[in-house]
Write a structure and sequence with these properties.
Blueprint (H helix, E strand, L loop, with lengths): L1 E4 L3 E4 L2 H19 L3 H16 L2 E2 L10 E3 L6 H9 L9
Parallel strand pairs: 1-4
Antiparallel strand pairs: 1-2, 2-3
């Protein structure tokens, strides 16, 4: 799976990392819905750290991302806006 962190780059994560990312998804959505900044920050930092453990892809290699994450310093309010914005690349992410 290829994951892009906006303003940072792309990473290839293995199947085990991808499965862990899926498990974080629901918890992150719950934190956003509950407006729980602390939980959101803790979970989002864990997601970013997990992605960064993957293989960093070079900037010259154009690869379509399977998942696009906002920048690592994204706030809960920014994440809420990001979640409400429809994807423009047709991927549904």
């Amino acid at each position: 799976m290829i994951v892009r962190i906006l303003s940072e780059g792309q990473y290839r994560v293995d199947d085990a990392q991808a499965a862990r990312l899926d498990r974080y998804d629901e918890d992150l959505l719950t934190a956003v819905e509950r407006n729980d900044e602390g939980a959101f920050r803790r979970l989002f930092e864990a997601v970013i750290d997990l992605v960064r453990q993957g293989e960093r892809l070079g900037d010259t290699l154009p690869v379509q991302s399977d998942l696009i994450l906002p920048p690592a310093d994204t706030t809960l309010e920014e994440a809420r806006r990001y979640l409400e914005t429809p994807a423009t690349d047709g991927s549904g992410h």
